[in-house]
Amino acid sequence: MRVTELSLTHFRNYRALELKEIPSGFVVLQGDNAQGKTNLLEALFLLATSRSPRAHREGELIAWETPQDGTAATRLFGCVRRKDGPVTIELLLMGRPEARPPTTAAVAVEDPELLPAQSGVRRRLRVNGAPRRALDLLGNLTVALFRPEDLDLITGPPSGRRRAIDILLSQVDPRYPRALQRYARAMAQRNHLLRRIADRRAGQDELAPWDDTLAREGAFILDSRRSALDRLAQLAGSAHRPLSGDREELSAAYAATVPLAGPALGDGGAAVAQAFLARLGEVRARDIALGQTTVGPHRDDLTLLVNGVPAGSYGSRGQQRTLALAWKLAEAEYLREVTAQDPVLLLDDVFSELDAHRRGCVMAVAGAYEQVFITTTGAELSGQMMPEGSRYVVRAGTVTPE
Question: One digit per residue, pLDDT tens: the chain, 402 residues?
């Protein structure tokens, strides 16, 4: 799989960009900081998932100079060559640009919904020219994004790790994002009802249908995550050994708020649903007192360990960064295994954080994929041989072949 064309209109700092005949293999985007390299990778991620990996509101994606006359403010368009034929993907955003709230990044969300709420920006999605919902977009283009912020997978809050595995699974199984959506809606309704019960405006018997929905959808989410985690841990361990010089062993554990017995089956079976339902009953009094659902996949966590020790608490900075990189390499390989075709790799300023040994390991792995976009300031890849025509210079929202 590879992207052959990319067009951006009034997106971030790109007023108008047209890239045609994008080559396979390494596509190196070279330029100084704040020129638009990361924005281009963000656009590819948006075309794959309909979500931004860094924006908190869709208004942040709209260029400030965009005319506000009711027409489409921002347009992203890509052509993807897949094994089963070409696909075109188009995303339109209509609304006003807005600055990112300065305090948003520091806010820790205790009970985030699995699918984030949309801002006031209206959007339209088309696949092969036909209108599609966001859920129908997933899987047409699969991507694996590597960026310096991936260290948060080790040291950050559980919500980031949950979001990472949710995005990964949503790209390979159309049932998964639909289960997330139904779960999030049921949880919102249940939380509202919990507060009504606490105010004596509703009875506890009214929780039954929402508990049933949470248990059914939550069981599928839980079992899917656990099943994927088993394979991801194996792949990450294989990627981690050469990165660490064969000195460390990586492992992973899924910390569920619902007691689970037996291996994951990947089908969200009745046993998991029954365990979930029983747990909801056990914590009902606490949930009513707090006015929110306190158990379920929205409260679970994924723990990554080095030599059996939690890396987030006890690993050194270098160990944590190597572990995060190994995990992202495992995500890419998982996508390739499940979909039977290469995802597009997006490497955002990764090499500046690595020594020569790790840089070489990543280049060797990345070279096996059909297409790899790399952002760089130039110095860290000066010794790497690249095919002719694969380097582009990014400067102030323009991209030109070197």
Answer: 999 999 999 999 999 999 999 999 999 999 999 999 999 999 999 999 999 998 888 888 888 776 655 555 899 999 999 999 999 999 999 887 776 544 333 333 333 334 444 557 888 999 999 999 988 999 999 999 998 888 888 889 999 999 999 999 999 999 999 999 999 999 999 999 999 999 999 999 999 999 999 999 999 999 999 999 999 999 999 999 998 888 888 888 899 999 886 666 666 678 899 999 999 999 999 999 999 999 999 999 998 888 888 888 776 777 788 888 899 999 999 999 999 999 999 999 888 777 888 888 888 899 899 999 999 887 666 555 555 558 899 999 999 998
**Residue 380 vs residues 30, 54, 63, 359, 386: alpha-carbon distances, Å:** 11, 24, 30, 9, 13
Which residue has tokens 């009745």?
270
Specify which residues 148 forms β-bridges with. Answer: none
- β-partners of residue 391 are 28
Pairing outcome for strands 301-306 and 250-255: antiparallel
Sequence-ordered alpha helix ranges (H) in 173-299:
175-198, 208-243, 270-282, 284-290
Residues 6+ apart with CB under 8 A from 92: 72, 74, 75, 123, 124, 125, 126
Question: Any idea what the Cα angle at residue 137 is, between residues 217 and 17, rounded to 5°?
Answer: 145
Hey, what amino acid is at 265? L
